[in-house]
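Researcher: Re-running this chain for the archive, since the previous output was lost when a drive failed. Same request as before.
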Amino acid sequence: MDNSLLHSGHHFIAIFGGSVAGSEAASRLAQRGFRVVVFEQNYLPYGKIEDGLPKWHVKLRDKEEGRINDKLDHDNIRYVPGIRLGDDVDFEDLVQNWGFTAVLIATGAWKDRPLPIEGIDSYVDRGLIYQNPFIYWYNHFHEPDYSGQVYEVKDDAIVVGGGLASIDVVKALMFETVEKALRERGIETNLLELDRSISKVLEQNGVTLTDLGVKPCTLYYRRRDVDMPLSTIEKDSPENIEKAERVTKKILENAMSKFLFKFVPCHAPIDKIVENDQLVGIKFQQTKIENGKVVPTDKFFEYRSELVISSIGSIPEKIEGMPSEGSTFKISDPKSCKLDGYDNVFMLGNAVTGRGNIKDSLDHGREISIEVMDNELNWQEEDYENWLRGSEEGISEQVDQIADHISRQKFMTDEVIQSILQKTEDLQRKVGYEGDYRKWVEKNLPKRLEDILEINH
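Model: Regenerated structure tokens:
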């Protein structure tokens, strides 16, 4: 037997965040014999697979959540739901006093990048919505017991973005406005049917958007259509650049044809249009691309709308006591992603890169970890699954680095182990978790739209 396995039970590792990165790290450490506590801020550990992957991805969501369940349902893993680092558990107290051999942070990226217009955030929920809360609402508002923020979807909306997540935002807007207009005409449909093709559903019912009185939403992007991160082809040669641009253009054209939204390239938002203390539009500056860079021109345009959604990416939320650098956390070792100033704290996933575009995600996934899913959600599902599997390999490499570090640390005393067990049990008790992970998931899994549709039909 490997000597490291003989003594790994003398170490307890804390992991904050139980989604793709956290569950993968927990599983690999548990398989090596380490004892792991997974703290999750939500009741369920699925992160953006549950709250950011749009709900029409039924099979993919269920498959990936099943994988997370299989990883976390392990004798060496203790699950503690409903605990938010920085609020329910103080970071400095955790690191200095709890006694964990190591702490891994995989808390995800839940904060939207600010729309770069001065004073714009004063109009959040007064004409402006950010992507993360919008998609969270969209994924859950059908649930009978939903009690969160409610949004009123309007047609002719402005979406500022350009990543793949912004394609999902415009799809959600089109699904809501078209379904409502069809229902008012006595035509019943649902988003699972519309996801196949809005244009075909309208054709089958002999109507158009104009007939329905629906004005399509418009996606404004500061670069060209061919610059959108829609292709997985590496742009590492002139031939591949040309191929990637051709594929990107085709994907965008197909999406516009199926879902009937509009697209305006080379427009950068620079100012807000406000009336009666309400955001009613955005002022854009036309751009051009020179040597791969966005260059502003002297042309300006104003577009008015009752609804503006910003979809320009996500960044990690700052946690008090943890050193940061720009929009991400500061690390001192690129291989293990050790948090600067701490010998036993390591970052996992998007908290390392602090970026949301697809290329950064893939590159970093191969080397170290998994990036947040903001700009990957419109891939074909097999592409998405391949990306996840590749990112898990990156997590494996990082966990090996961390495990080697842990193995060199002093064994924990029985007193410290018992203290951790008691503290985590107290936290579990506060939310009613009794220790059976599978029962907890079954109890707290939200009502699925596809199940409601089956009941109603």
